[in-house]
Task: inverse folding
């Protein structure tokens, strides 16, 4: 069982719901980063059959196993997909030095409209400089469900994030996030280890919910009346630069639906966006004499 101190908090979960990712810079210790690089170079990072419990994957000695079994990583996994998720697939992504092109922007797998979600851990075992490209993601794109390379024609989207980071950085993304490997213009090989995980339990209140008080759950109905800039409602209402007309109501409604799903609070709302759509009175007005 993961210690409560290693679980995510409600604001981090709200950030994940809103943006479709979380990043943890320099989370993994340097000795594990170096050991993972050695295993990658030796070709010994063994995959597993899809559907294998994660707890049975990467048995010792395995540097990737050490990374995954860190309590901080276990806490992230538990908070998002619960205890002992299933291994889906892994990939050691390699970008050659001085390569001629970037990977096309895409979503992994096919159109997947589940409210339940898989996560992908993206682990950067060495420093990634701007010249090395890095993995690119489009924050908030995870509700725009697409089929693989449907979006490949798009080159750059305002608001995109390029993962320039120090060794040991871990990013966790929702299965729907738009992403790609950027062009590596350096003279060094670039690596990123990815593993996708499937939940085996209903994804509800799996994180440290101590901060999920009545106050943070309260619906904020006054437009522009955010009390704090970092409460759950404010995080779920944050704009992305690519939102239509700088508003993104549809995206915020999708965030509300996912927040309701992971909290079980069917009355939760942000700025009344979803409550309005659910208002379908059936009570008939009695005839007036
Ligand atoms: Fe991908």
Result:
């Amino acid at each position: 069982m993961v210690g409560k101190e290693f679980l995510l908090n409600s604001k981090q979960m709200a950030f994940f719901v809103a943006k479709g990712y979380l990043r943890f810079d320099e989370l993994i210790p340097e000795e594990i980063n170096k050991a993972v690089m050695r295993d990658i170079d030796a070709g010994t990072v063994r995959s597993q059959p899809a559907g294998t419990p994660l707890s049975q994957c990467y048995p010792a000695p395995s540097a990737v196993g050490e990374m995954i079994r860190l309590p901080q990583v276990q806490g992230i996994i538990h908070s998002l997909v619960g205890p002992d998720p299933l291994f889906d697939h892994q990939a050691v992504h390699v970008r050659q030095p001085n390569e001629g092109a970037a990977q096309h922007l895409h979503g992994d797998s096919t159109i997947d409209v589940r409210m339940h979600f898989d996560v992908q851990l993206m682990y950067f075992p060495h420093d990634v400089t701007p010249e090395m490209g890095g993995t690119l993601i489009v924050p908030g794109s995870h509700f725009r469900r697409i089929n693989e390379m449907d979006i490949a024609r798009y080159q750059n989207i305002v608001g995109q994030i390029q993962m320039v980071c120090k060794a040991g950085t871990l990013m966790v993304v929702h299965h729907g996030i738009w992403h790609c490997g950027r062009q590596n213009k350096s003279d060094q090989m670039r690596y990123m280890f990815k593993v996708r995980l499937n939940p085996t339990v209903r994804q509800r209140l799996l994180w440290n919910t101590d901060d999920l008080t009545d106050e943070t759950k309260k619906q904020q109905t006054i437009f522009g009346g955010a009390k704090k800039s970092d409460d759950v409602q404010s995080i779920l209402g944050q704009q992305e630069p690519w939102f239509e007309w700088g508003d993104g109501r549809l995206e915020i409604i999708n965030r509300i639906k996912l927040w309701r799903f992971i909290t079980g609070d069917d009355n939760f709302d942000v700025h009344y966006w979803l409550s309005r759509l659910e208002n379908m009175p059936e009570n008939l007005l009695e005839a007036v004499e």
Q: What stands out?
A: Residues 106, 108, 179 surround fe (ii) ion (CB under 6 Å). Confidence is low (pLDDT under 50) at residues 220-226.
